[in-house]
Each structure stands twice: as C-alpha cells, then as structure tokens.
TrEMBL record:
Taxonomic classification: Bacteria, Pseudomonadati, Pseudomonadota, Gammaproteobacteria, Oceanospirillales
Keyword Transcription: no
KW Amino-acid biosynthesis (keyword) present: no
Residue span(s) of domain Urease accessory protein UreH-like transmembrane: 13-219
Keyword terms of this UniProt record: Membrane, Transmembrane, Transmembrane helix
Xref: InterPro entries: UreH-like_TM_dom
Protein name listed in UniProt: Sulfite exporter TauE/SafE family protein
TM helices/strands, residue ranges: 12-41, 62-81, 87-105, 141-167, 173-194, 206-227
C-alpha cells in the first residue's frame, strides 16, 4: 500500500521531508550536537574524531527512528484490517503531515500538545542519556543517539503517523530511516559549526517554502485518497 497516492517514491518523499524539517531539528537536537563537540577535550578535537562522534550519534538516533517506525507500522497492520480503516489511517497521516508543515513554518504550534504527551515518557528515558556524558568514544555517541531518538518531537510523530498508515513493519522502518537521513545535513552542520548552511535552513523563507511543499503533498494525498474511495 502506498499511502501517498503518488508516483513519487515514499522513501524519497520522507527523505525530503527530513531535509525540510532541518530548522526544527536544529532547535530540538542542536544543543546536544554542540554539547557533543564541546565535551571533547580540546586536544582531541580533530575533525576526523569529531566527525566520527557526530556520525555515530546520528546513526544511533536514526536506528531508534527505524525501530519506532517498525513498531508503529506493526500496530497499523491490526488497525487497517478493513479498507475503510486503512483509508482512515491514510487520511490521518495526511492531516499529520499538514500539522507538521504548520509546525515547521511556525504558523501553528498544535503539535506541541502531542509532544507534551511524549514528554511524560521522556523524563524516564532522558537520565540514561545524561549518564553517557561527556561523550569521548564512538559507542558512547551511538548509545546517546539511540536514547535521544526517543526525544518528543512533533515532526517524528507526524512521520510515525505515515508509518502507521503503511501498516508494514519493514516499510515503516525504512520510511523512518529515510526521514532520519534527511535530517542529517542540518544536525551535522550544527555540530560542525557550518554557519552558512545552518542560517539557510533556519531562514523564514526556507521554512515557508518547505511548509507549503509539504502541505501541497498532503492535500494531493487526500484528494487521491477521496477519489479512490469514491470509486469503491
């Protein structure tokens, strides 16, 4: 089942959405990326070493996204047993994408209410991450990223709604993996202090273009979904 209703491969779309959400990712995870950099003793801050730590952190983070995608998609297999239920899940995924777009552009912060639910669980997980600081070894960075991947995030929740509609654990994991890879440029730029890229990602015009693109994608998904439903 392709919940997008488009010829555009869903994995490519998820990757692009990750790129578009870069500004939000900087706000959510930029602090920990900077902390990873500055926690390394000055004598050990060679570019290769810092790059390895940042990459290990992000691999752990993306792996957690993929695990969450597989779990949520497994749930979707039970919720979409009937065609009408499957269509409802796809419509829900499209609405969540629209909310994601509004969130990225700072036009409406409704997803903060969803994040608030996640924070109730995050307070039990977050202390495990703090025990890994300061990070000076690759396994530490990977473990910290795996923990930080469960940080409450409206963008991640929107993509998980898409995984739910896919209702296929493997495809759900791959979808979240593609999304996670799309967020890498913004977070690596933060960790490595790539100011020009960071400023471009955070520019209001960039965020507005990203939001409008996602809204157009979601509306096309809804129109295609309703059109297919009308022919049933």
């Amino acid at each position: 089942m392709n919940p997008t209703g488009l010829d555009l491969p869903p994995l490519l779309a998820a990757f692009v959405f990750g790129l578009m959400g870069g500004a939000h990712c900087i706000g959510m995870c930029g602090g920990i990326m900077s902390a990873l950099t500055f926690a390394v003793p000055p004598s050990m801050r060679q570019p290769a070493r810092l790059g390895g730590l940042l990459l290990s952190y992000n691999v752990g983070r993306v792996m957690s996204y993929m695990l969450a995608g597989a779990l949520v998609a497994s749930l979707g297999t039970f919720l979409s047993l009937s065609p009408s239920a499957g269509m409802a899940l796809q419509a829900f995924a499209a609405v969540m994408l629209i909310l994601m777009a509004l969130y990225i552009a700072n036009w409406w912060k409704g997803l903060l209410k969803v994040e608030a639910v996640g924070r109730r669980f995050w307070r039990y997980i977050e202390p495990f991450g703090r025990r890994l600081m300061p990070v000076v070894k690759l396994p530490q960075a990977f473990a910290l990223g795996a923990i930080w991947g469960w940080l409450p995030c409206g963008l991640v929740y929107s993509m998980l709604a898409w995984s739910l509609a896919i209702a296929d654990p493997l495809r759900g994991a791959l979808l979240m993996g593609a999304f996670g890879l799309g967020t890498l440029p913004a977070l690596l730029a933060t960790g490595l202090a790539a100011r020009q890229l960071r400023d471009l990602i955070r520019h209001p015009a960039t965020r507005a273009i990203a939001a409008l693109s996602i809204i157009a994608f979601a509306l096309w998904q809804l129109l295609t979904l309703f059109a297919s439903g009308a022919t049933l």
